[in-house]
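ok so dumb question maybe but i'm new to this and my supervisor (M.) told me to 'just get the structure for Receptor-type guanylate cyclase gcy' and walked off. so i did the thing. is this what she meant?? sequence i used:
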Amino acid sequence: MTNLASPEDGLADVENAKMSIQDDGSDSSDGGTTFSSVGMDRSSSSSAGDSDAPEKLVRRENQYILATRVIVVLLLVAAAIGTTVFIYRYAKTNEEQDFESDYQAVATTILDSFNTDITLKFFCAKTLSAIMSAKHEEEVAKDLAVVAALAEHGIEHEAKAAPWKITVPHSQFLQATSEAKWLINAHYIGYSPLLFQESHREEFETYAADYQKQNGLFFETDLSEDNDDVNQDAIGWNASKGLFVVDPSSGEVSSAPTLDSTNETVVPPFYSPLWQADARSAQISPTMYDQASDMIRATALRQMIDRREPVLSETFLRNTTYYDTYFGASDPVPGVYMHFPVHTLDVETGQGTGIIGSVVMEFLWESFLTSIYPPNSENVHIVIENTCGQTYTYVVNVENQIGDYKEHRMVLVGAGDLHETKFDDYVQSTDYGYFGDVVWFSKVPSLDEEHESTLESCLYRFVVYPTQAMEDQYISNDPVLYAVVTFVIFFFVSGVLLLYDHIVRKRQKKIMEAAARTNQIVSSLFPKSIRERLYRQQLAFSPSHKDDSTIRSHRSMSGTSKMQLQSFVQVETGPSPLLLSSEPIADLFPSATVCIINIANFSAWSSERGPQQVLTLLEHLFYEFDSIGKRMGVFKLDSLGDQYLAVAGLPHYRHDHAELIVKYAYRCLKAMTMITRKLEVTLGPDTGDLRARVGIHSGPVTAGVLRGEKTRFQLFGDTYNVAEHVCTAGQPKRIQVTEQTADLLKERGKENWLRPRSEKVDLKGRGVVQLYWVHPHANEAATRSTGYEYLPDDGDSILDDSTSQLPGTPDEFKGTSQQLDRMNRLIDWNVQFLYTLLENVVTARGKRSAVGVAELEEFESKLEKQKAEGTLVLDEFTEILSIPKFTPDGVDAERGILDPLVKEELRDFVTRVASTYRDVPFHNFEHASHVMLSIGKMMKRIVEPEGIEYDVEGVSEETRSIEIARQIHNSTYGISNDHLLQFTSVFAALIHDADHTGLTNKELVDLKVPLAEQYRETSVAEQNSVDITWRMLLEPGYTHLRRCIYSNAEEMKRFRELLVNAVMATDIADKRLNAVRKSRWNDAFAEAAPSSSSSDHKMFHDDANLNENRKATIVYEHLIQASDVSHTMQHWNTFRKFNARLFEERYVAWLKGVAEEPSVGWYKGELGFYDFYLVPLAKKLHQCGVFGVSYHEYLHHAQENRREWETKGEGITAEMLAHCQSKYPHGLASVPGQTTVEEGFVDEEVDC
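this is what came out, is it supposed to look like this??
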C-alpha cells in the first residue's frame, strides 16, 4: 500500500530550524558555539584522534605492503602493455608491407600493359597509314607514267593523281584491318581523306559515286527492306548523294554543308569523309559521313594536321544519334578516337608535301587493355586522366573464370577521380603522352624543320590506386588478436601471482572493518581513556598471548598497536572465564554532574503514531543532543526510550562541570523546541507541544565497563539515582537541580541562575529536599526577547501547553500568538498530509482521459440543483460502495506532479474549513486533526494476511511488482490500491465536525433549530458539515484542487459517495444506520449458523465481487469510526485529555439548558461505552483481517483504559466537574461569546 505520509516530508525545515538555534549568552567557557544542522557529516563531529584510530592503524600496517603492491602491479602492467604493443606493431607492420608489395606489383603490371598496348595501337595505325600512303604513291607513279607516255607523242598532259582518290581493294583493306582489330580491340578502323577545298569535295563525291557504281558499297550486311535491324532511312543515302552529316539531337541525315557555312565550327575548314572502313560491327556503313561535323573528331583532326603526328581525341560518350543510327547502340560508354596521319609525296619531286588523310580508330576504355591482367587486379581502381580536364574511374571485374584463368574487363565506376581517398599516398601512374617511338616515325621529315605546332593535343595517363578490398586481404584483426592473447596471458599470470595477495588482503580488510566498526561502537560508549584500557586488557587475555611474560609486557604498553587491535576484535563474544578473572575497568570520580533529559507526555504522543514516526522524532532529537554534547565536551552515557543520559566531569575532570551541564541542558531544550515545532508538519498534531524535563545532580560517581556479551560503559552510585528522581519530579520545559549542583553553580558566581522551588520535594531514598529551578543567563533581557518560554514568573506552574491552550480556536482563530502559531502548524500538517494523498490519486489516475471543464461544471451544477430540490446528504448514503478492480497501470508509475496552485488552493481550503469549527472544547479542529492522524496510522497498517508471495521467481521485475500488488489488492479488498478512497477518508475526517455546535443531534432536534427541520431530524450535524464544506469546495477559487480530486463525472460521483458514507459513519447514534451496518456486517463476516436453511445466511447467495465490495465498505466505515474515537483506545493520558474536553463540552451544554449535568452517570456511561462499543469495535477490527497489529494495540489500550477508569473514574469525574465549575463560575455568562441559550444558534450555517 502506498504510504500515506512520509516521515521524511518537510525534514528540510527541521534542518533549517537547527541551523537557526544559537547559544544565547554563551560565555568564555564554551566560546559561544552555535548548533550545527542535522545534515552535517557525523564523522566531522567526533573528537579528534578518537574515531580515526583504526584508520591510522590500518595506514601504518599497510603502508609498506601497499607500496610494494603498487610497484609490482605497475611493473606487471608495464610489461603487459610493452609486450602487447610490440607484438601488435610487429604483426601490423608485416601486414602493411605485404599489402604495399602486392599493390605495387599489380600497379606496375597494369601500367606496363597500358604503355605496351598504346604503343601497339599506334603501330597498327602506322601500318595502315603506310598502306594508304603506298597506294597513293602507286597512283602517283601511274599518273606520272601516263604523263610521260603522252609527252613522247607530243601530247601535254597534267598529272591529276589527286590525293583523295585513294582506294585500296576492299578485301585487301579488310585483311589488313581484321588482324589489327582483333589484336588491339579496336571498335572501328577506317580511312578518311582530308578535303580542304569545295572543289576537292566535288571531285571526291564524283569519284565516290563512280566507284560505287563500279564496285558497290563497302558493306557486307543484308540491306534488304525485310531486314528489321537496318535503319531503312539511312540506306537510301549513298555515295551518289555526296557527303552527309547526322543531326546530334534528332538523328536526321542530311547533306554536309559547304565550307563557307562551317567556318565557325572548323578553322581552317575542311572535310574528312569516312571512306574505307572495317565497319562490320555497324548496321549501316557510315561511308561518306563527314567527321569534321563532330566537334570532338574535328578537334582531334585539326590537332593532327597542326602537329603532323598521331593524336588521341578527348574522351567521348558513345550515346549520340550517330551511334544509334549506324551501330544500333547508344550506351554512355566512354571511348577515344585515335587519328593517325596519312602522308603524301609530290608528284614531280617525290618529296613529302603534307597530310592527305588519316587513319581513324575508335576504342572503348573498358576494353582498351588487351594484355593479361595480373592476379589481384580486380582490387584496384584505375583512373584515366587527360590534359583536357577529363577523368574517369574504372575497376577490373572478372568476366569469366576457367580454372585458374580469369578473363578480366574494366568496368566504369563513374566520371571523376573516385578512388578511395585514404589511399592517396599509394598512387602509381604513367607519364602523360608516352607513345614510345611511334611519334617520331610518323612525322614528315621534310616538313618538320619548317613547321611549328600551335595546338596542344590531349595527352593521357593511367593512375592506379588500391581499394579497401585489397587492403582487407592483408590488413586483418590478427595483430589485435595476438595482442589480446598476449595480454590475457600476462593477465592470467598476474592474476595467479596476485590471487594469494587478494585473499590475504580480503581477510585483512574484514578484520580491519570489524575493528573499525567495533571502534566506532566503543567510541560512542566509552571515553578515550577507558577504551585504551579495554584494548590493553583485551590483548592481555587474548588466547594468542597466554605466556605470562608476554601478558606482563603487553600490560605495560601505554599505546595501542596492530597486535592490540587485532587481539581485541578476534576475542570471542561473551564473557570468558579468563576475562572475568581479570580486574574490571572502573574508576571513582569524586565530583561529576549527571543530567537526565526526559520527554514529557511522550508515551501518550507515541501511542497516536506509527513506529516510523516515533523513531523519526527520537533520531532527530537525540542526534542533535549528541552533536551539542560533542561540541561542548559533554559525554553521552546512554539513551533508553525517551530518556537521555549525559555526564560532565568524566573521564577527564573539569572544575566547571556543573555549569557546563546546565548550559548543555539549556541548549538541548531550545533545540527540542525548534525541532518539534518544525517536525509537526510531518509528525502531526501535538508534536510541537512536546517538551522535556531535565534533572541534574552533582556528586561522586563510579564509572566503569560492565563486561559481558554486550559490554557497556555504566554509571553507578547514588548520584545517578538522585538525578533520575530529580528528573521525574521535574516539570516540562524546566531544568531542575539539587542543592549540591546549586552550590557548585554559586561557587562559579551563577547565583542569578537559581530559583528555589516554593515547596520542598520528597525524593525517593533522599527524603524531603530543596530543589531549584535553574535558567542560564536569566538576568539577561536579551534571552527573554527570543520568545522562548523557559522559566515563567510562577515557578511552581505545572500546566502543560497541551492543556492550557486549545488548538482550533473558534472562527476567527482568537487567542495569543502562541495559539495562532499552533493553529498554523496544525493547518500545515493537514495540508501536507492531504497533499501527499492527492499526489497518490493523480499518480494512480495516470494518463486516463479527463472530461472538459465545461462538462464537469455542468455535472457539478446538476448535483447542486438536486440539493436545492430537497435531496439530503443522507439520501446519498450507499449501502455497498463499489471498489475499482485491480489494474496494473498504476504499479511503479512515476509520481504525479501537481500544479503549485493546487497546494495554494488546498491550504486556503483547509484554513477555511478550520474557521468553520466553533469554539467548543471537544468537537473542534484539533479533534478533527487527531482523527486524521489516527486514520493515517491505521491506513498504513492495512497489510496483507500471511501467504503473500513476495519472492516471485522466474519473472521480470515489472511482472513481480504487478503480481505482488495484485495479491495485496485482493487481500485488502482493494483498499490498498484505491487512492481516492484513502484521500477521501482523510478528507472526511477534516470536515466531519465542521460547524459542530457542541450539542448532540438529539439535542438539536429537541431545540427545534432550523437545521433539524432541514435535515428531517436525522444526522443533523453530519449532514450540515458535508453541505457546508461541499459548497465551499465547489467555489471557483478551488477549481485546480477539484480537478486533482476528480477528473470526470464518474470520479466526482464516487468521491461524493465515499465522502457521504465516511461522514455518516461517525453518527453512531442513528438507529436506522446502525441497523444497516449490523445487517451488512452479518452478511459479510458473520459465521454461518449450524442450520442448513439457506435463509439463515444470506451472504452465501451474494455474488463474490459484491461481497468483496461489502467487506471493503465495512472496513472503510470501521476505519472512520475507530479513528473518530481513537483517543479512547490510545494512551491513558490521551484518553484523559480528550475525555476532559468532552466533559467540558457537555457541561457547557448543561449550562445552556439542553443537557443533563454531565457528572451524573458519566462514570458508568464511560464503562458502558467501553463494554458495548469500544471493545467490540476493536475486536471487529481483528475480524476485518486487514488492520494488522492495530487490533492488538487498540484492544490493549481499550482494556487498560477501562480498568484504569474503573479504578479512578469516579475521582476523575469529580475533578473534571470541579475544574468546569471554577472555569465557568457565572454559568452560561462565563461561556465565551454567549449569554443565552439562543445565542448559540443564531447562525445555523457557517458563512462560507
